[in-house]
Amino acid sequence: MAEEHLKLTLKALKDRFGLQESLLMKYPPALEAEPEKIVEICQVLRDEYEFDFLCELTAVDYWPEAEPRFNVIYGFYSHANNVRMMLRVSLNGDHPTLHTLEGVYRGANWHERELWDMFGINFEGHSDLRRILMSQDWEGHPLRKDYPLGYEEPQFSFNYDEIDQRKHHARYEEA
Amino acid sequence: MPEPLEVSYQELKHLVSERALQGDTVLLNMGPQHPSTHGVLRLLLELDGEVIINCVPDIGFLHTGIEKNMESKRWEMAEVMTDRTDYLNTTGNNLAYCLALERLIELDVPPRAQAVRVILVELERISNHLVWLGTHALDLAAMSMFLYCFRERESILDIKEMCSGQRMMTTYFRPGGLWRDIPSEFEIAVRRFIRMFPSRIKQYDALLEKNPLFMDRTQNIGKLSKEDAINLSVTGPVLRGSGVAYDLRKAQPYSGYEQYDFDIPTGTHGDVYDRYLVRMEEMRQSLRIIQQALDKLPYGPFRSNNRKYVPPPRAELGTSMEAVIHHFKLWTEGFIIPKGAVYQPVESPKGELGYYVESSGGNKPYRIHMRTPSFVHLQALPFMCKGHLVADLVGIIGSVDIVLGDCDR
């Protein structure tokens, strides 16, 4: 029963929006969607196929190996049918933008803020797109692959000025 | 070079109502060092007298970049970091991570390991609910509860220490089974606990359940309707308190939960009192599960025999060259997981804990995202506390049961 509902939904979505099955996801089954259609698809998922619960919203950065750079992953659960499915959306590296899902699932609000904070993915129409985990004056988006993991940047003669300008708070005279 | 971001008044104006800008209402900062915010949660409250008009949670004070850190560690090393997110549910976090990896590489887990996992996770659920009960009651000025709850929690920590050598951060579950077999005293200790504990739950109930002071401060407070709860992605006891019988242990069983007989308690009003009742009943149901798992605890190996992912027994190293090679490979470069991604949810004491794990075919995770219940539930906090008094807010935060380490990761 549950499995049939899932098959039906996947097939219907494929036919209606021309989506492809994602080969990467082992569980739950995932479809690859276009960034422009995401709100429309979610609306259909919630209203017609009873996927009333947004269980996961995250992103992956494939820099520098792959283009488009980002994949945003939406996970859905249906309380009525007890099945799970996911959507994957690829996004370009320069100005990655999606429309917010807040209108469909209110729970998407903080997840989208987290994605803005961690990956710099912009959500159009979001009610409160501020950083959520990092402080408001943080520079950069930590979970991007080109963001270094910890450690002080070594300051050599060729990049002395650049780092000095950026981290003037660490300058010797001011300390 | 990007200019440092300055947060202006204009950017934050939308968080409060028009009346606050006129000076009609008061803005009050609560936390992050307030004891009843259960950690470092900061709330910006907009008050009309003592009534909350608006509540804006501010999180991130405990953000330690665990997800980013895990990307630079090997699969088996990254597991150690999962304990550190939700420090009241450490084995539960290990379980979610191990299940995700096992699903990704289709690794078998022997029945004995599965049963021990269930016993420990259920003990952990009781221990988590004890901390919740103690602090929740303390917030509502029932001082002695805290001492009773921590007394019982101590015996659970002793059992964990007996198995793994650690009281809290155990990392006892490994992909493919357990780190080592349970000691012979384990069964006796757990049986002693489940014999003792039902009478203790009765004591707690006698202290709180029909206590008029407690009922006054919890009934009809912090209501969350069924539809709102689902739309806000709320799970766990908060969702069940609102009347939705959604429990992953029943809905999509993992680790052999389908063999055990237990009920899912639900509430009717979705208020703080119902969440209290749901959690108390959950402790009794956990005892039932532990009893059944102990009664039919199978003998046999405690971890998988797949040497590509699971280290060989120490005794084999002296006699088998293959075992030495496997051991060497596992300890120098770790194991490699083929390309793929998986989302694995489990029922943690707080709600649905999901691990999104993606591998690019290396010996390190490419991306790990934890869908943590505390993060999602804090989002629902403003919807629960509007129109209530500041004093009730403390009870509502307690009833949601958040751990900020879980929330900020």
Give the structure's gist in a few sentences.
The complex is a heterodimer of chains A (175) and B (409). Chain A has helices at 2-17, 38-49, 108-119, 160-166; strands at 20-21, 25-27, 30-33, 53-61, 70-78, 83-91, 97-99, 122-124.
Can you characterise this structure?
By secondary structure, chain A is α/β, with parallel strands linked by helices. Chain A has one domain: NADH:ubiquinone oxidoreductase Nqo5 subunit (Beta Polymerase, domain 2), CATH 3.30.460.80. Chain A has helices at about 1-15, 40-50, 110-120, 160-165, and strands at about 20, 25, 30-35, 55-60, 70-80, 85-90, 95-100, 120-125. The termini of chain A are far apart. The mean pLDDT of chain A is about 85. Chain B is mainly alpha-helical and about 400 residues long. Chain B has two domains: about 10-60, no CATH class; about 75-380, Cytochrome-c3 Hydrogenase, chain B (Orthogonal Bundle), CATH 1.10.645. Chain B is built from 17 helices and eight strands. In chain B, the strands form three sheets. Chain B has a three-stranded antiparallel β-sheet with strand order 1-2-3. Chain B has a three-stranded antiparallel β-sheet with strand order 6-7-8. The two termini of chain B are about 30 Å apart. The interface between A and B is large, with 44 and 51 residues. Strand 2 (about 25) of chain A pairs parallel with strand 6 (about 340-350) of chain B, so a sheet runs across the interface.
